[in-house]
């Protein structure tokens, strides 16, 4: 675990604390190594619909959010996609992790293949006030998986920057896929003007690592932590005095679970209690999820988000809590 922020020089952005929201926007590219379109396609198309509803909710309530978008989604056609591929591609030991393995599944364009293209949604996000389009790498790149090299990651980032430039988008922030990062991958980003990233929670259970390190026991403990307070509030003060800013994650907003539906009030109160703590202590509560997490059980998931936003509105009135995107934490020296 790397520690970029030092406790001595903490900076509190807002006296009433802040709520930071980030979304990992990836469609099938974020899940293809685990699931096929037949298995998960309905969640993806439901997630597209959820994007529009979230944008509407954010707009109506003056909520900022960062949309960390996979570069492949910016492409208009398969032809453009193939022409935009990086010069070097990841040589993961497990090649099933590489999204380039699945290029033959990709259709002609967004209208014909809503699972792999999203230029229309990128345009809607960009046009919605207060929304930041950030990067989630070009290919959903895994920085800690064995077999890949730093040069391959650099080439991936360059491809992401290039395709976004066609949409007049310049990245300031990154969310690393599967939250895999280390000092050298962060350095590749800062070299390219991307100086804000979402770090993991400090507790050992959220330590970044390759897939093989994420044991079943660790995943089970993280699941429990969503309902019961095991790791604390995970709120933080973001240090903006360094060359790079770590806007540390406080919580992954897990999708609604029918199996654990009786525990839903606990899941929500775990979040709202941490938000209240952030407002009281002038800290940041950073919550994130994937749009496809809201693709199934859409009304339950959007209802949870509505309750979180309602709680934020109360904290905004009572404490002056702010809604911030990751780019609002840009380092002063950057
Ligand atoms: Zn992802």
Description:
The structure is a single chain. This protein has 334 residues and is α/β, with parallel strands linked by helices. The protein has one domain (17-329): TIM Barrel (Alpha-Beta Barrel). It is 34% helix and 10% strand. Strands 1, 2, 3, 7, 8 and 9 form a 6-stranded parallel beta sheet that branches. Strand 4, helix 5 and strand 5 (196-197) form a beta-alpha-beta unit. Helix 4 (150-165) runs parallel beside helix 5 (183-191) and helix 7 (264-281) packs parallel to helix 8. It is globular and about 50 Å long. The relative contact order is 0.21. Residues 1-12 have low confidence and may be disordered.
How many angstroms does the end-to-end distance come to?
A: 23 Å
Instruction: Compute the number of strand runs.
Output: 9
- Element-level helix/strand string: EHEHHEHEHEHEEHEHE
Q: How much helix, percentage-wise, in residues?
A: 25-40%
CATH uppermost class: Alpha Beta
Average pLDDT value? Answer: 92
Question: Rounded to an integer, what's the Rg over CA atoms?
Answer: 19 Å
Task: Using the coordinates shown, work out and report the CATH topology.
Answer: TIM Barrel
């Amino acid at each position: 675990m790397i520690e970029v922020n030092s406790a001595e020089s903490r900076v509190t952005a807002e006296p009433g604390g802040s709520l930071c929201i980030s979304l990992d926007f990836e469609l099938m590219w974020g899940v293809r190594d685990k699931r096929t379109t037949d298995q998960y396609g309905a969640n993806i198309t439901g997630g597209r619909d959820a994007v529009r509803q979230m944008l509407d909710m954010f707009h109506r309530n003056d909520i900022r959010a960062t949309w960390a978008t996979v570069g492949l989604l910016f492409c208009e056609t398969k032809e453009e996609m193939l022409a935009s591929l990086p010069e070097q591609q990841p040589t993961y030991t497990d090649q099933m992790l590489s999204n380039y393995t699945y290029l033959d599944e990709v259709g002609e364009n967004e209208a014909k293949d809503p699972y792999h293209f999203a230029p229309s949604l990128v345009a809607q996000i960009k046009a919605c006030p207060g929304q930041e389009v950030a990067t989630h790498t070009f290919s959903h790149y895994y920085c800690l998986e064995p077999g890949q090299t730093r040069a391959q990651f650099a080439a991936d980032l360059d491809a992401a920057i290039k395709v976004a430039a066609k949409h007049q988008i310049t990245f300031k922030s990154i969310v690393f896929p599967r939250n895999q990062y280390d000092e050298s991958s962060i350095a590749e980003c800062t070299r390219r003007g991307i100086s804000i990233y979402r770090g993991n929670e400090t507790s050992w259970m959220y330590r970044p690592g390759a897939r093989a390190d994420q044991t079943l026991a660790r995943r089970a403990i993280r699941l429990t932590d969503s309902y019961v307070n095991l790791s604390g509030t995970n709120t933080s003060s973001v240090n903006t005095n360094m060359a790079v800013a770590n806007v540390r994650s406080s919580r992954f907003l897990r999708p609604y679970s029918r199996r654990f539906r009786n525990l839903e009030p606990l899941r929500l109160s775990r979040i709202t209690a941490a938000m209240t703590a952030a407002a009281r202590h002038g800290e940041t509560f950073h919550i994130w999820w994937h749009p496809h997490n809201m693709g199934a059980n859409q009304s339950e998931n959007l209802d949870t988000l509505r309750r979180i936003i309602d709680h934020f509105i109360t904290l905004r009135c009572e404490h002056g809590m702010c809604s911030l995107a990751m780019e609002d934490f840009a380092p002063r020296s950057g």
